[in-house]
Design a protein that fits this description.
By secondary structure, this protein is α+β, with helices and mostly antiparallel strands. It has helices at residues 2-31, 43-48, 53-56, 83-93, 100-108, 150-153, 184-197, 208-218, 243-248, 275-280, 286-295, 305-308, 340-346, 375-386, 389-396, 423-429, 448-462, 476-480, 484-520, 522-530, 535-576; strands at residues 34-37, 39-41, 95-97, 123-126, 131-136, 142-144, 229-231, 249-254, 262-266, 312-317, 322-324, 330-332, 348-358, 371-373, 440-443. The protein starts with a helix and ends in a 20-residue tail after the last helix.
Length: 596
């Protein structure tokens, strides 16, 4: 029985560790996805070309020359170092464009090889939806949630009247080009201003290039034009929110979003929201923000959950900013105090359905914005834009600019910059998005092996395709955890070996004990044979005894092992901390291996 308890204990430990390894792989792959973006940077190629040399220190060691490639230098002369040019070229050449239209068709094909390796969350498509959100501040005024909070402390925004704070507005409400449509440059610069204002609000502190890299790594990129809003990971079978996300956050009050107009407010680990975002969401007025910025007061503003749950915001779709002039043209309606009421009336009311906070030691708490919305809202915005008057008018007149009434022309200014919008520029400004052309694709797997298989499938997909149709992506997980897969496999194989050795030893010991029992009972065997018992009858007697004793010992050993796992798990929890998910357990299915 002692041997059986030992085998059962090893099986329980092996089962617990294997489950723990599987959970780690699942958590890791749920957080760090394979993300394919419309425009991406091939870090693997850039690193191979030395394009990141400037980030790690000097670009050369002094033993080689970038000018001539020689390993020996004439140290009596000054030499030119062209490594900076090479690095710049490496970075420029590493920027690739992906044809996501064809790749999406491949992923949606049920017969694609890649589908067998997809995880619980499968494939998630993200779209560059163009919208802004208005909030009502304590003064009763309307404010754009992308308003520049930093400008308040500089005194450049009149917050007492509840003005919108246009300095930090996003591209959808920023500067306009010649013919009234927001220009790409204006949107980019405004987005930078919004990022500056909301920098403190990004709870991971990611900004600029590294922020983009982290977003791609975690699969939590913000593809909306409203900087404080991002789409939540959808779940299976049409669930608005993935179980992975729900398990990674504590629902403090209310409920998770269940329909398109529901949003969730996301707090940080300390139940707090940065002051800049509080102003942008209308929870504090401009005067309150300015006073806090000036005094850095110790007394903080607090809200009960009831005050936040049920609070309303107004989503303004990009297409709703264009007003029909009645003569076949449309005018752009900027975010200004005079237009606020009209924008609110044409917008969609959103409601805060719940307040959440990252769970303790959560591995997948990757929501990087203060507000999360569902894919249902994204779908609504796409459909609403398609049916909007400005989009339908533009699609009906592909050769005419509905903003000016003039015919599209390929004219350029003196410096080569475009001075006229094109058909595609207008549709993009109106928020037109095609479901066949996502801005990024996140592929989720449940294990490192499946992730490697997905990478191999993408390589197979690229075979025979030209550069314009091949898929380029950076495997951030491989860059960060290049040896984890090998370590996990080695640990798994070692545990399997322990169990296998224990089972072999157990079988040998049972055989030896049975042989000794037969040798010690030769007289009893002789009496049975003298009474007419056959060799088969004698064998049945010993087999029955062995089965009965083994069964009782096995059941007793498994039962005692199951009881021993209780203090063992308490010991593991004390050693590794209460947040550890490692548990020692003996699956019922393993009990059969303890029987002889």
């Amino acid at each position: 029985m002692i041997g059986i308890i030992g085998i059962a204990a090893i099986l329980a430990l092996s089962s617990g560790v294997n489950n723990y390894i599987d959970q780690i792989q699942y958590d890791t792959m749920s957080s760090y996805t394979i993300t394919v973006s419309r425009t991406t940077v091939d870090l693997n190629a850039m690193l191979a070309a030395g394009g990141m040399g400037g980030l790690g220190g000097s670009s050369g060691s002094g033993s080689s020359s970038s000018s001539g490639g020689s390993t020996s230098q004439d140290m009596t002369k000054v030499h030119a170092d062209y490594s900076d040019i090479k690095q710049s070229e490496a970075v420029a050449n590493s920027i690739k464009s992906n044809n996501l239209n064809d790749f999406k068709k491949y992923l949606d094909n049920p017969n694609s090889d890649i589908r067998q390796y997809l995880g619980e969350n499968g494939v998630v498509y993200s779209y560059d939806v163009n919208f802004s959100v208005l909030a009502t501040n304590p003064d009763g005024g309307l404010i754009d949630t992308d308003a520049d909070a930093d400008a308040l402390s500089a005194g450049s925004v009149n917050g007492s009247s509840g003005s919108s704070g246009l300095a930090g507005s996003s591209g959808s409400s920023g500067l306009a080009s010649e013919n009234g449509a927001p220009s790409a440059a204006a949107g980019g610069m405004a987005g930078m201003a919004g990022a500056s204002a909301g920098g403190a609000g990004n709870r991971f502190g990611a900004s600029g290039g590294m922020g983009s890299i982290m977003s791609a790594m975690t699969g939590s990129s913000n593809n909306s034009s409203a900087s404080n809003f991002s789409q939540l990971m959808p779940g299976q079978n049409g669930e608005p929110v993935s179980a992975v996300t729900r398990d990674s956050y504590d629902l403090l009050d209310g409920s998770w979003p269940s329909k398109a107009t529901d949003v969730v407010l996301v707090l940080d680990d300390n139940n707090a929201i940065p002051s800049g975002i509080l102003y942008q969401l209308g929870l504090i007025s401009a005067d309150q923000y300015r006073e806090a910025a000036d005094a850095i007061a110790d007394d903080k503003e607090d809200w009960s959950y009831d005050e936040l749950v049920g609070r309303t915001l107004t989503l303004v779709n990009a297409s709703d900013r264009y007003v029909d002039n009645g003569n076949g043209t449309f005018s752009y309606r900027e975010t200004s105090d005079s237009n606020m009421s009209a924008l609110k009336d044409s917008g969609l009311e959103l409601k805060v359905s719940g307040v959440v906070r990252p769970a303790k030691d959560a591995q997948n708490a990757t929501i990087s914005t203060a507000v999360g919305y569902t894919q249902q809202l994204t779908d609504w915005m796409i459909d609403h834009t398609d049916s909007s008057a400005v989009v339908q008018a533009q699609e009906a007149s592909a050769d005419t600019d509905v903003l000016t009434g003039a015919v599209f022309a390929d004219e350029t200014g003196e410096n080569g910059s475009s001075v006229k919008n094109t058909y595609d520029d207008n549709l993009e400004a109106f928020g037109k998005v095609s479901r066949d052309a996502p801005s990024s694709i996140s592929i989720y797997t449940d294990s490192f092996d499946d992730k490697e298989a997905v990478a191999d499938c993408i390589k197979a997909y690229n075979k025979g395709k030209d550069e314009d149709h091949a898929i380029t992506y950076t495997d951030y997980v491989a860059l960060m955890t290049s040896s984890i897969t090998s370590i996990v496999n080695i640990i798994t194989y070692v545990l399997i070996a322990f169990v296998a050795v224990s089972l072999v030893v157990s079988c040998v010991m049972i055989g030896i004990i049975t042989h000794i029992s037969v040798m010690e009972r030769t007289k009893g065997i002789g009496i049975l044979r003298a009474l007419g018992a056959s060799k088969h009858n004698v064998s049945q007697v010993f087999n029955a005894e062995t089965i009965i004793i083994g069964l009782c010992s096995g059941l007793l050993g498994v039962g005692l092992t199951a009881l021993l796992t209780i203090p063992a798990n308490d010991m593991v929890a004390n050693l590794l901390g209460s947040g550890s998910t490692l548990t020692i357990s003996l699956p019922i299915g393993y009990a059969r291996y303890s029987w002889p």
